[in-house]
Amino acid sequence: MLAALTAAERGASVVLLERNQKLGRKLYITGKGRCNVTNHCSVQEVLDHTPRNSRFLYSAMERTPPAWVEDFFQQAGVPLKVERGNRVFPQSDRAADIIDALAHALRRSRVRVLEDRVSRVLTRDGAVSGVAGEHGEYPCSAVVLATGGASYPGTGSTGDGYELARALGHTVTEIRPSLVPLETEGDLCPRMQGLSLKNVVLKVKNRKNKVLFQEQGELLFTHFGLSGPLVLSASAHLRDYERDQYRAVIDLKPALDEEKLDARLVRELTEQANRDLQNVAASLVPRLMIPVVLELAGISPDKKAHDLTRGERRRLLETLKGLTVPIRGPRPIAEAIVTSGGVKTGEIDPKTMESKKVAGLFFAGELIDVDAYTGGFNLQIAWATGRAAGEGALLFLKET
Q1: Whether this model's pTM surpasses 0.70
Q2: Residues forming a β-bridge with 87
Q3: SS3 for 200?
Q4: What span, in angstroms and rounded, lies between the C-alpha atoms of 98 and 16?
Q5: Residue 388 and residue 349: Cα distance in Å, rounded?
Q6: Tens digit of pLDDT for each residue in 306-331?
Q7: How many Cβ atoms sit within 10 Å of the Cβ of residue 224?
Q8: How far is it between the farthest Cα atoms of the chain?
Q9: How far apart are CA 358 and CA 160, in angstroms?
Q10: Sign of CA dihedral 283, 284, 285, 291
């Protein structure tokens, strides 16, 4: 939508082909229906939160920083607000307001929106000559492919763009789910299903014990494993489930170092000396966690507090500071917020988003091999690359 709007506002005749009956289906579900439209931060912070091919985005992000996006929607009549983590939302908490603002701008700029699903990009002598859809062919001199990736296929992003790009000779890197819940081994997580933890520190380590991710925040135990904001962010760092082995390590008491936590354990055990450990543990962890934590520490829940040995107390401390769960792999791509992988960035001009293989062909958004963490960064990439592609397409038309 932003690519079409950008080109149309500068005088191009633009047709937007949309396979769904309504525009912006995927925007409706972003930010749990509230639309986390961008992040209130600098360009460098966006790039720092983009673990995959961030350098490719530098030029586009400089021209369309988060501040531009915020100003664009404010000017379009959508008041915004900034929440925790600098996440930017409409004040109304309605994703529909963002979509309506874009749709209104498209109408004002005379962009023709047609319902059709593109099956092929037509070329002649190495340059774009049109597109073929289910309802006919559309001759044109420039095409922007902004189909999204392969996540949430119910919104229309079923991977069509990858096939269109491949058919034109482009390399599409391996497609994987990112910002996705993680499945774990064993029954520890299912036993704590539904339990949400706040202000814990999650580390993810690989086979060599290297910390690939570390952050404080919220996570959720589910019937299949782990979910929640921390886990979604962590998943963006895990790319080789076949050859590596990952494990989640959760610090349940990040505010206390080992010495202070040990002092607290001694105090709790002393004050409740005649109680069972499972009752003492209720002052340390949520109810659902008690049997799991004691089992991992190798302590009988019926054991009296005064009978706990120093070694057992040490194991309990280590469990509280590092509850460890082996990770099996990600949930299916259909459940992922974004797709990792896409059209190889080396085959795209980073300033104009134009293909280096087909003249007049441009790419934008998730279709490109770039992805970021949660917090509005992926939508910021969409706005920046969409606007760059719209400008690039217009410049191409003027030069040909």
Answers
A1: yes
A2: 39, 83
A3: strand
A4: 18
A5: 10
A6: 999 999 999 999 999 999 999 999 99
A7: 15
A8: 86
A9: 18
A10: negative
